[in-house]
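FAQ: What does the model actually see?

It sees only this:
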Amino acid sequence: MVPGLIYENPLEYIYTLLLDILVCTVKSFYFLLETIFLTLLPDRLRTKKDVTGQVVLITGGGGGVGRLIALNFAKLKAKAVIWDVNREAINATCDALKTEGFECASYIVDISDREKVYEAAKKVKEEIGKVDILVNNAGIVTCRPFLDLPDKAIESTYAVNILSHYWTAKAFLPDMIADKRGHIVTVSSVTGLMGTYACTDYSATKFATVGFHESLYSELKYHGHEYIGMTLVCPYYINTGMFSGVKPRLFPMLEPKYVADQLVDATLKNEVNCTLPGSVRMLLPLKCLLPAKTCWEMMLRIMKGPQSMSMYRGRGKAKSG
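And it is asked to produce this:
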């Protein structure tokens, strides 16, 4: 055998490999049938988790989608906790919830600052309680071609869009493990599955969120923390003003309410992956199956991706959403 492999004994190598292939095949067949069954099963018959009384923390909760996520969880009798760097946005979210008859706790937090995240997390635990569901929703975009991107904008995009996920997860995951319950929702993007024109910073950070989420998912599974849910949400462009001026060719922008509804529903169902709209998920494998030059032609001539992104307005300032 080639030295350095996990099993160097030839017999052990062959035996364990065949056994693992058999087990994997049987389980894969089961998972495929399960997926087909759950896809065809009417939504009203699906089992969903009860979040009554649970603390749900939403970063970027002052934005359009974040606000609607908070409202949806409040309607389910959960305790909504809003984090945002913008006081006016936070007030708007709290007012929206109060209008519907719900309360929410709010904190001004710069999630790009690790120490401020840890400090705010401590306050939440003392004043509200342990966080049961963490929704890493906050994000910013600058949307400029690479050579036009200011260095500071690149650093800010990484600090908010991916590094903050490390700080929030480190702050709340230990309690979830100790209590043997919890859920982490990672809001990524379709641009985290497919590189996008004028988004070398934004798209790269969204690719990073996918890698972060999948790696953390594997760690939790391997160490037996099956009770902690992990949901990765990858939406298409959302009509929040974050990509103001962009006019896609094949699919219209998603409405914030649709994204918020689907995110909460996926969380309640403990879904691992949620790509919006679902039809986009069917197209993504082409990226790996087709020649790279063919994919570029499809992006340029069929999807008109670069042309759409070049219509972006408000280039002077990073947009959040």
